[in-house]
Amino acid sequence: MAYTYFPGCCMHGFARHCQDSLYAVFNALGLELRELKDWNCCGATSYIAVDEYQAFTLAARNLALAEQAGLEVVAPCNACFMVLKKAQDYLARYSNLRERIEAALARGGLQYSGTVQVRHPLEIVIEKIGIKALREKVKRPLKGWNVAPYYGCLLTRPYTLRNGMTLEAFDQLIPALGANLVDFELKDRCCGGSLTGTIEEVGDRLVYILLHEAKRHNADVLVTVCPLCQLNVETHQKQFIRRDREDVNIPVPYFTQLIGLALGIPEKDLGLDRLLVPLDRVLEEHPAELRAAA
Amino acid sequence: MNGNGNLRVGLYICHCGTNIAGTIDVKAVAAWGETLPGVVVSREYKYMCSDPGQQLIVDDVREQHLNRIVVASCSPLLHEQTFRGATAKAGLNPFFFHMVNVREHDSWVHEDKQAATEKAKDLIRAAVRRVAFHKPLEKKRVPIHPDVLIVGGGIAGIHAALTLANAGKHVYLVEREPTIGGHMAKFDKTFPTLDCAACILTPKMTAVKKHPNITLWTLSDVTQIEGYVGNFTVTVKRHPRYIIEDLCVGCLECIEACVYKQAKYPDEFNLGLGKRKPIYIPFPQAVPQLPVIDRETCIEFKSGRCKKTCVEVCGDRKAIDFKQQESTETINVGSVILATGFQVFDARRLPYYGYGKFPNVYTSLEAERLINAAGPTQGEVILRDGRKPKTVGILHCIGSRDENTNRWCSRVCCMYSLKLAHLIKEHTGAEIFNFYIDIRTPGKGFEEFYQRLLNEGVHFIRGKGAEINTWPLDPSEEGKLIIRVEDTLIGKIRRIPVDMVVLSVGLEPHADAGDVRRLFNISCSSEGWFLERHPKLAPVNTFTDGIFLAGCCQGPKDIPDSVAQAGAAAAESLALIDSKFVELEPNTAYILEEACSGCKTCIPLCPYSAISFVEAKKKAEINEALCKGCGTCVAACPSGSIRQNLFEDEEIFEEIKGVLAHA
Predict the structure, then answer these.
(1) What is d(CA B613, CA B543) in angstroms, rounded to the nearest whole number?
(2) Under an 8 A CB cutoff, do A185 and B471 touch?
(3) How many CA within 13 A on the CB side of residue B83?
(4) Do B353 and B330 have their domain in common?
(5) Same domain, B371 and B479
(6) Residue B655 forms part of a structural domain
């Protein structure tokens, strides 16, 4: 099964470790990622807040390019995922906007007819591989790990998941990897997004609440599905520890890093060394065991 | 050219105050009207529907020997009958009249005065040419069956049934649950007077059962209705209760004797907060006072190997019948009152309020049962974990006034939330917080009740509750349900920790209201509430004659309004019955027998099953009483042998020519 891969700026920048693990896991699961040629910014955050037309034009250009390939598009960042879907929704709903954007695309020799399916890699893993098959592929069960799932706000808002999928169905990924599922009520909350850089007291508080609650539930790991969440929740830990003297230290791996570990993919291929809060302590306390070959 | 002798038309243009005259130059139209062939009198007048306006027609007919009348005014829905009446009063056949709608179709929808005036002229020219070909017609009179069907046995259906029965009319009351009483039977007290709901409702329920003029069918559904106003034939499906109604005396010993010593299954009447046995009575004062057997949970139905202790204790009465089958009743009635009620909003649709996830989040209806002395906790307000709540949050507008769910205001929630606040405080002494968008108390004694609650020290926080969560940020929040809300009076986001949450769920149309609507051939609003014929002047009528509405099936309302509406529906029904006959519009289709080839094309097309085939003559035949004048058969007949009164070919062609004759 092959997909068009839309990395977005994160995966090529600070989230290269996420991308490494995504490639490694998809490869191991027999899913092929073909990076979209000549892709551009998805149009998220700053753009969409300032000029929707320009933001949607950027998104539409990516969609137009992807349409030529004819494959489903995998967007591993929640912001890209949401903006691409939002652009599709607005193009379908508002003819004024559609006409302007179609004209802009035409000037670049492109056209978009609205057929692209935008998917999150987590959806693909759950739908195409399935929890049961994944459990069977696990070689190093994450035994004893308390893992809290954290999906961020944009995965299910404002657009709901396809085919009646729910976050509760996604939660089952964690026990499938052999870990303990932590009932994390804040799993679909905001990570602070760009507010951590613009209105810090608001953004930081949102991050703090996530960390505080994860710790309260004795989570060893907070697993994310979005590189932006990953960045926010990971990089802001130190200030709470320093300033408020509260131990909110908790590793925040991307979900394919966790799957990769459980599948027995070598750690160096999963970018674990790039995590600012390393998984080492968890690995030492709960050494993931190699399952006896069945 | 008209085939009706010497044509003398009277033409009247109504100002309708400024509704028409503000846009259309009525004086110019009247002057122009005089130039039309056949028009003898052409006038404009401020209000044609007024008595002097109608008198103009009467006088002109007498003095000027008019034989056709055209009035250009509002929609025929409003005043066609008025002007037909005036025409008849003047001594002409009322169908020698034709109405032109220059208000809804012209002045109200156009801004360009000159163009609107020209359009009025076109429409009037068409009418004058058409009316020349009108034939004298007679309205057919059909007797009205005096019996009435009422669908739904809540307070509205009960009240309508008793009103009609007391007036000596026979009523069939059909209810799909095992008991009548509806939602009101579940309430503890009623606002703002705090009367006990059961104390005022159950005597009326008993009166229904005892009344010689009421046939009560519970566990029953209406499955078919045919006919027309005054003469409906209705099919009712009666589901088995597995208890023979005539033999059971309601001693309820069978319930006691059931092999289940303890009640085990969720009790529907208490919304699952209590338990019942497979043989049960929904609540102690249920009417009819009969048990019912649930075949999903009864061992005899599941395995056929029960000791049947219930049958044993029933003994010689032999009132239990496991073999009881569904039965069908066919009845004839002249009118129908729909009182099918509402369902409460399913709070699970808004997952951020945690209903179904956090055990101590309740709906308002569940709270009613918790407070009720006959409820699952005998009126003690205790939480699912056995604790008594010390703090309670009541969140208003759950599934009301919400773009994401239901946009309408459910009207009763503010008041019932205040009532619940009062009762919970009375029962537990708890500190109570109400979270509201606006407090709406526009009823008799309602505002005074709100003031009373304020004086009782209940807290009111202006802001729609955003979510319920259980993640504490400080020790005071540990183990609590935390309500997050934007307090819009202080402009801050607040977190209020409580022990118990009550979600004030809104009212919405039943999930199957659409099926009921189609069954009875009535309209509904875009939200799904059944549509009244006129929001102000015909609030209990529907667009289908003989079918009336009462209670919440028409829209959210409280008990006094439901009862008032039920009374009105009963009165409308009585007025209809006592008029003895209905006059049927003569705009029906008829067959030119000599031209009918007997091809039967028309028969399956008729939506009202009004056409049959007469074997002896090999011709189709139309039942005038059933024909609604839709014209489908007229258009479909391959030999052109079906015609329709008031829509004759020459009438329509002249009308078209009149419009197209625009200079």
Answers:
(1) 30
(2) yes
(3) 31
(4) no
(5) yes
(6) no
Residue B392 lies in a domain: yes
Give the integer Cα–Cα distance in Å for A11 and A228.
10
Q: Which of B92, B113, B138 is the last residue before a domain boundary?
A: B138
Structure tokens that stand for B191 in this block: 């606002």
Q: CB count, 10 Å around CB of B519?
A: 17
Distance of residue A228 Cα from the nearest chain B Cα, in angstroms: 23
What is the pTM for the complete model shown? 0.81
Does B248 map to a domain? Answer: no
Q: By the CB < 8 Å criterion, does B473 face chain A?
A: yes
Same domain membership, residue B266 and residue B188:
no
Residues of A in contact with B470 (CB under 8 A): 185
**Is the minimum CB–CB distance between B358 and chain A shorter than 8 Å?**
no
- B354 and B260 within one domain: no
Tell me how far apart the alpha carbons of residues A190 and B252 are, in angstroms, rounded to a whole number: 57
Domain that holds residue B46: 9-138
A68 vs chain B: nearest CA distance in angstroms? 36
B592 CA to chain A: closest CA distance, Å? 53
- In A, what residues contact B, Cβ < 8 A? 185-186, 209, 212-213, 216
| Residue B652 in domain | no
Mean pLDDT for chain B overall: 95
Domains assigned to chain A: 2-119 (1.20.1050.140), 137-285 (3.40.50.11810)
B377 CB within 8 Å of a chain A CB: no
User: Looking at the complex, does the CB of residue B469 fall below 8 Å from at least one CB of chain A?
Assistant: yes
pLDDT at residue number A294: 40
Q: pLDDT tens across B554-564, in order?
A: 999 999 999 99
Answer yes or no: do A185 and B472 touch at CB < 8 A: no
C-alpha distance from A76 to closest chain B C-alpha (Å):
26
Could you say which DSSP state residue A232 is in? Answer: H
Nearest Cα of chain A lies from the Cα of B376 at a distance, in angstroms, of: 31
Residue A74: partners with Cβ closer than 8 Å, 6 or more residues away: A3, A4, A5, A6, A33, A119, A120, A121, A124
- Tell me whether residue B252 is exposed, middle or buried, using C-beta atoms within 10 angstroms of its C-beta: 0 to 12, 13 to 18, 19 or more: middle
Residue A135 tokens read as 């459990």
Q: Print pLDDT tens along chain A (294 aa).
A: 899 999 999 999 999 999 999 999 999 999 999 999 999 999 997 888 899 999 999 999 999 999 999 999 999 999 999 999 999 999 999 999 999 999 999 999 999 999 999 999 999 999 999 999 999 999 999 999 999 999 999 999 899 888 888 999 999 999 999 999 999 999 999 999 989 989 999 999 999 999 999 999 999 999 999 999 999 999 999 988 888 888 899 999 999 999 999 999 999 999 999 999 999 999 998 887 666 444
Give the A:B interface size as CB pairs under 8 Å.
Answer: 10
- The count of C-alpha atoms lying within 13 angstroms of the C-alpha of A53, restricted to the half-sphere facing its C-beta, is 11
- Among A185, A212, A216, select the one facing B469 at the smallest CB separation: A185
pLDDT tens sequence across B372-381: 999 999 999 9
Are A209 and B471 an interchain contact pair (Cβ–Cβ within 8 Å)? yes
- H-run or E-run covering A259: helix A255-263
CB contact under 8 A, A213 and B470: no
The C-alpha atoms of residue B549 and residue B542 are separated, in whole angstroms, by: 7
Share of chain B above pLDDT 90, in %: 94
Residues B214 and B352 in one domain: no
pLDDT at residue B272 above 60?
Answer: yes
Query: Are the Cβ atoms of A216 and B472 closer than 8 angstroms?
Result: yes
DSSP, collapsed to helix, strand or coil, labels residue A40 as: coil
Q: Quick one: B269 and B300 in the same domain?
A: yes
Q: Tell me, yes or no, if B586 comes closer than 8 A to chain A by beta carbon.
A: no
B594-635 pLDDT per residue, tens: 999 999 999 999 988 889 999 999 999 998 888 889 999 999
Write out chain A residues lying below 8 Å of B473, CB-based.
209, 212
Distance from CA of A112 to the nearest CA of B (A): 30
